Amino acid sequence: MKYVYFFGAGKAEGDGAMKEVLGGKGAGLAEMTRIGLPVPAGFTITTECCDYYLKHGQKYPASLRAEVKKNLAHLERVTKKKLGDAKDPLLVSVRSGSARSMPGMMETILNLGLNSKSVEALGRNTKNERFAWDAYRRFVQMYSTVVIGLPKEELEEKLRAMKTRRGVKDDTQVPAEGWRDLVGEYKQHFKKQTSKDFPEDPEEQLWGAIGAVFGSWNAEKAVTYRRVERITGLLGTAVNVVQMVFGNIGDNSGTGVCFTRDPSTGEEVFYGDFLVNAQGEDVVAGIRTPMQLSEMARLMPKVYKQLEKVRSLLEKHYRDMQDMEFTVEEGTLYMLQTRVGKRTPTATFKMAVDMAKEGLITKEEALERIKSEDIERLFYPVIDPSVPKAELTKRKMATGINAVPGAAAGKAVFSAEEAEVMAAKGERVILVRRETSPEDVGGMFVAQGIVTATGGKTSHAAVVARGWGKCCVVGCEQLDIDYATKTASSNGRKIHEGEWMTLDGNEGAVYEGEVKLSTPKLPDAFSILMGWADGVRRLGVRTNADTPHDAKKAREMGAEGIGLVRTEHMFFKDFEHPEKSADRQFAIQEMIVADSPEARRKALAKLLPYQRQDFVGIFKEMDGYPVTIRLLDPPLHEFVPHDREKQEELARKIGVDVEVIARRVEQLHESNPMLGHRGCRLCITYPEILEMQVRAIIEAAVECKKSGIKVLPEIMHPLVMDRKELQILADATHRVAAEIISKSGVKLEYSVGTMIEVPRAAILGDEIAEIAEFFSFGTNDLTQMGMGLSRDDAGRFLPDYVDEKKAGIFPNDPFQSLDVHGVGKLMLWCIERGRATRPKLKIGICGEHGGEAASVKFCHKAGLDYVSASPFLVPIARLAAAQAVIEERAAKKHGKKSGGKKR
Ligand code: PEP
Ligand code: MG
Questions:
Q1: Lower CB count within 10 Å: N or C terminus of the chain?
Q2: Is-contact 158 184, C-beta < 8 A?
Q3: Hey, what's the torsion of the CAs at 532, 535, 536, 537, to 10 degrees?
Q4: What is the pLDDT of residues 787-839, one digit of tens each?
Q5: Could you give the 3-state DSSP secondary structure of residue 330?
């Protein structure tokens, strides 16, 4: 097996498509070399080798040594330099890089190949002794900490002490002797700690570095990052050994990170950070605050022009926004990395739409590039426009760089660990750091927002937060952050740990206290892209909404009707007039405690106007679109008071003895209420409930129809398990409806159908369809009953079923993403049989899965007519439905290409 791939002098053994094997960085370097960009030469050791190394007790494959030797010799030929040479030494960087970007999570060693001889040569050849010794001390420092594992702090302490001795503040002021002394100290320290001399032999150095990079795949921070980013199935990291180029030789050198478009707004502008006289990590680490590219253009016009060319070439080549790292060594540009850049949700939409309009990608590709999370994140909050400017001015502590937009409010915490502890207690926190490092990702993930005192838009904090669409302010230099006292102060104000603060990632502002937030207007690109999705998809998308307000919101989100109105919600709360909710609650409670059908009817009559009024409101909002209304579903005990005080209040209100209430509540108690007297079973026992609800629906529909609204009511019975059961309910429904309609004198169409949420109903789909005019899968209950997992309690142990490191039985939580393998089969069985009985049977889904992308795609394949999702998830369903069509087309095309084999 081939473990090493060479690139250099315009040729590369690998290419951009080999990400899995060469990692993103290795594949990018190979591809850039192939298309003629200025890339330093080097070679990549594959992720397969990492996999072998980690699986074989940190041993390399037998052939690796010879392969590395051969490639090193090749590199020496191409660069005309020799590793460790006393005259003209080759220096290399040894960097990690896996198939998925994990910014800063794994190790890097720079300036490898320096020893007591080659450092002198480097000083002579660059005529810069100071630079050479600085490079050497950086190498000794990195090697000692990364390869050997000596604590960073001890070395940093020595650096600080040396600077104090010499009376200098910045590293740039340290003379050559200072660095030389420090190297001596570091080496002594190394010997004391390891009982060995610091390695002079460059090959020994190289093998140490290769092992350390492979090993860093399993470092805690990398494992945490993969966990939170849900990165699975990779082999490991590749190792890139690349000729060093130096951005820190002098003012004609520098290093930078740039994006082919603005990763925050998506605008088509060249965007990035540059640091003069600095080494690569300085930009990413955020230790110094960099300049913008426009300033670099002024300082180094020739190099900038060249970089602009690279920008357009790479974006056209990869057909996506690129995030590039580059170094300028004494006026010569070198490209060190290119990868698809992370971006904010707004930028994701803008870029996808712009690129499709520019013809860089197709509309279908634009649609495929959007993920559910991108849509969710569009709804992130901003500072509410109603907050007066004067209040903001009063609260303002500092302004930094607006790295990731959105706004966040939370309690200040000063370490990632504390962030995790507080978040676990349900607190909202803002992580306040001088700078962040990969160790902080756990805390960054749980924080509402992140603020750092240093760094630019490409610093670690900014890059990581952007990937998550999390509000982030960096380079907030006015903010004096004191870890010891756990305070941040500026502008005469001080925030202690646990005190509220607010960040505005759009403005880069930091405010004291909690400022009101609200959700922003959607970008234009969002509606354009959604329009494209609607043009492609075949699956209908409805919403689950119980109030006129939600129905309105859902229409704005693009819902084409309502797939589920849970009528019981109307008994709990008056959504239009919340202060009047108690009236409804008493009415339903009176109905429940009633001891005769007459008494129940009397109580139900009180509920009728409330229900009718709600339905009128919903029908109005859904003018011209179907509305599926489900009759009462939960067990009655959910409506009655369980504490004595509330029982007494109810007794007073309806004029009965409190003991009557208490006894009725006791009677309603069930050991397994989810499998008990609920759903349509209630109407089998108490048909008067059905009568009242159907009356409310039909009367509301008649009223709307008379006022010119197009109403399409669909009356749905929940939890049905048998044909005869549904027959009884449907007959009663038609009887009540027919009477009202005939009296009204209007012609009203309506239909009667059922939810499919009991496995028995799914199995008997052919029989049920004899009565039902439509089916709607209630996959919450169908999952609960199909898998025998309580939807209310399974959260206690389900994580173990899903966690790959534990039992790993299911790939996902089946209540979130449909269990296609099991519950999905029940659905397919039911669909096939239902349509055998009634070919035009309308079938939808109204469980939570209707708003989850993978489940929606399954529903498309299964031939459903529509999915129904909560209002904010409607766009996710629309997009997933379009992606399902695109994937179907691609599979067909692929099938044709490979001979269109039939199974
Ligand atoms: C279902 O069971 O999937 C459903 C939509 O009903 P509910 O969640 O109200 O039980
Ligand atoms: Mg249900």
A1: C
A2: no
A3: 110
A4: 999 888 887 788 889 877 788 899 888 998 999 999 999 999 999 999 999 99
A5: coil
d(CA 732, CA 309): 74
C-beta of residue 61 within 8 angstroms of C-beta of residue 1? yes
Distance CA 666, CA 671 (A): 12
Residue 25: CA atoms inside 13 Å, Cβ hemisphere, count?
A: 29
For residues 516 and 396, is the Cβ–Cβ distance under 8 A?
no
Is 843 a residue whose pLDDT tops 50?
Answer: yes
For residue 288, pLDDT over 90 is answered with: no
Structure-block tokens of residue 796: 């206690």
- Distance between CA 602 and CA 594 in Å, rounded? 9
Is residue 780 within 6 Å of ligand 1 at its C-beta? yes
On the 0-12 / 13-18 / 19+ scale of CB atoms within 10 A, 340 is middle
pLDDT value of position 872: 84
Can you give the pLDDT at residue 380? 78
- Pocket probe for ligand 1: among 566, 776, 859, the residue whose CB has the most ligand atoms within 8 Å is 566
The percent of residues in the chain predicted with pLDDT above 70, rounded, is 98
Secondary structure (3-state) at 167: coil
222-247 pLDDT tens trace: 887 887 777 888 999 999 999 999 99
What's the confidence (pLDDT) of residue 897?
64
Alpha carbon of 848 to ligand 1 centroid (Å):
8
User: How far, in Å, CA of 183 to CA of 115, rounded?
Assistant: 10
Chain center to CA of 347: 15
Taking each helix axis from N to C end, the angle separating 118-126 and 129-142, rounded to the nearest 10 degrees, works out to: 140
Flag whether pLDDT at 266 surpasses 90.
Answer: yes
CA–CA gap between residue 601 and residue 704 (Å, rounded): 25
Token digits for 80?
């005309």
Tokens at 245, concatenated: 């180029």
CA-776 nearest atom, ligand 1: 5
State the Cα–Cα distance between residues 25 and 830, nearest whole angstrom.
49
Residues identified as active-site: 460, 846
**Binding site membership of 846 for ligand 1 (Cβ less than 6 Å):** yes
Ligand 1 neighbour 847 (Cβ under 6 A): yes
CB-count exposure of residue 1 (10 Å: 0-12, 13-18, 19+): exposed
**Angle between helix 779-787 and helix 823-837 axes, rounded to 10 deg:** 120
